Amino acid sequence: MYNRVAVLAHEKFPDRSKTANGVIRYADYEVAAVLDRDCAGDRVADHLGGVRDAPVVESFADVPGDVDALVIGIAPIGGGFDESWRPDVRAAIEAGCDVISGLHYFLNDDEEFAALAAEHGVDLQDVRKPHDDLTVAQGRSDEVAADVVLTVGTDCSVGKMTATMEIVEAARDADIDACAIPTGQTGIMIEGWGNPVDRVVSDFTAGAVEEMILEKGDDHDLLVVEGQGSIIHPAYSAVTCGILHGAMADKLVLCHAAGREAIHGYEDTALPPIEEYVDLYGSLAAPVHETEVVAGALNTVDVDDDAAAEDAVAEFSEAIDAPATDLIRFGADDIVEAIR
């Protein structure tokens, strides 16, 4: 595990840097600086509340003090590598830092980076590269002793990873032995292990989730599986369905972003009414394993004040006929109680 890292989020911090934001909020290591050309000179606390502060700098050369690694904190649609990041990645390697990437573009396959890493004795960690032994699911996730909860969404980028981490933390505070099951690059960076299901061969998606549940399910009382995408998403629904069937979850937490009316990046595709998601997720899961939505996590980051956020949460709770909250704004106790 690293002690201090720098996080690359050029021109995306904080609104489009959910990997960076997740690492800043939940990872055990210290974030020494965030690299963002547009926000250079600001502080992290100017943009994110409730996190350890750090400077926002223009380049890796401006990071104060020594760091152990550079984390690429952006996960663009398609997971490509932006060539404007190359000077900072090169500078990190030349300074003896490991580079941690959650892109679909593998740094180890980049001739320049691979050669530099070998020369300077550093590791390039492509966390989105699955291991070679994955296979199809056997339908065994329901055999573990732990209760299994899955965060599901109305869309991508609504807060499923955040909900997963907040529920685990709150459950532990309530003396429940809880464990996060990371399925995406951000969760893997935070937890230090996991299977990147959106990079797995489609036949093995459910199996990749099942493998993790079988690994952890008899060592903990509660497993919270990090969901991905949405079951109605034009691009990512296959991953969502694979996780849903592989997890064989006992309970679901539905995540939504307040005010979201269309699929992010597919604005001509309107979101269905919230009520429909409850039936959709439950009916799709049922032939493999009966489950139900027991709580909701509403992301109210774009709602100005707490009173309006409380109204939005109440409306969301009524729509899903279950307790709901904004986990960051109001805490996760209600959701943990619903799960319990």
Protein model, in words:
This protein has 340 residues and is of the alpha/beta class. The protein has helices spanning 18-26, 86-94, 111-120, 160-173, 185-191, 205-216, 237-247, 274-285, 306-320, 327-330, 333-339, and strands spanning 4-8, 30-35, 56-57, 69-72, 98-101, 124-126, 147-153, 178-181, 222-225, 251-257, 262-263, 266-270, 293-299, 324-325. The chain has two domains: 4-126, Rossmann fold, CATH 3.40.50.720; 141-339, 3-Layer(aba) Sandwich (Rossmann fold), CATH 3.40.50.300. It is 32% helix and 18% strand. The protein has a six-stranded parallel beta sheet, with helices on both faces. The radius of gyration is 20 Å and the shape is globular.
Short description:
With 340 residues, this protein is of the alpha/beta class. The protein is built from 11 helices and 14 strands.
Q: Helical residue percent?
A: 25-40%
Oligomer: single chain
Structural domain tally: 2
Compute the average pLDDT: 96
Roughly how many Å apart are the termini? 32 Å
Main sheet strand line-up: 3-2-1-4-5-6
For the secondary structure, the number of strands is 14
> What is the CATH architecture term of the largest domain?
3-Layer(aba) Sandwich
Task: Set out the fold topology.
Layout: E1 4-8, H1 18-26, E2 30-35, E3 56-57, E4 69-72, H2 86-94, E5 98-101, H3 111-120, E6 124-126, E7 147-153, H4 160-173, E8 178-181, H5 185-191, H6 205-216, E9 222-225, H7 237-247, E10 251-257, E11 262-263, E12 266-270, H8 274-285, E13 293-299, H9 306-320, E14 324-325, H10 327-330, H11 333-339
Parallel strand pairs: 1-2, 1-4, 2-3, 4-5, 5-6, 7-9, 7-10, 8-9, 10-13, 13-14
Antiparallel strand pairs: 11-12
Helix pairs in contact: 1-5, 2-3, 6-7
